[in-house]
Amino acid sequence: MRATKPDLLRELFAMYLADEPKRLAALCDAVAKGDLELMRYQAHSLKGAAATMGMERLCDACRELEDAARIGFGEALSQSCANVEREAEAVFAVMREDSEQS
After folding, report:
1. What is the pLDDT along the chain (102 residues), one digit of tens a residue?
2. Which of 10, 41, 49, 55 has a Cα at 20 to 30 A from 65?
3. CB contact set of 77 (below 8 Å; sequence gap of 6+)
4. What is the set of domains in the chain, with CATH numbers?
């Protein structure tokens, strides 16, 4: 039996929710520790996953954080991380709500 589009979307959401909250936690930990290289790596990875799923606002927030980490611009790091967290949590909430409705 072939999966319907809503089923496929739920499967993608489930895979995303299995990995990306962990990546977000690792990103926040890197920010707290001031580890610019790990921060840049995690922001880049989260950005790629967001881009794949068409999440433009999250992708843009990750790009800003990645750029701030690349140049070591300390003042922008905490604000950029807060933007990533806010956008990611909004995405996670929509995905969780969708999976609860199925």
Report:
1. 455 667 888 888 999 999 999 999 999 999 889 899 999 999 999 999 999 999 999 999 999 999 999 888 777 788 889 999 999 999 999 999 887 776
2. 10
3. 31, 39, 65, 68, 69
4. 5-101 (1.20.120.160)
Q: Which of 90, 81, 95 shows the shortest CA–CA distance to 24?
A: 81
What is the C-alpha separation between 33 and 19, in angstroms, rounded?
21
DSSP 8-state assignment for residue 89: H
Q: Which residues have CB under 8 Å from 36's CB, separation 6+?
A: 69, 70, 72
pTM of the model: 0.86
Residue 101 is encoded by which pair of tokens?
A: 């409705």
Distance, in Å, from the CA atom of 21 to the CA atom of 18, rounded to the nearest integer, reads 7
Residue 55 phi/psi, 5-degree rounding, is -95, 80
DSSP 3: P
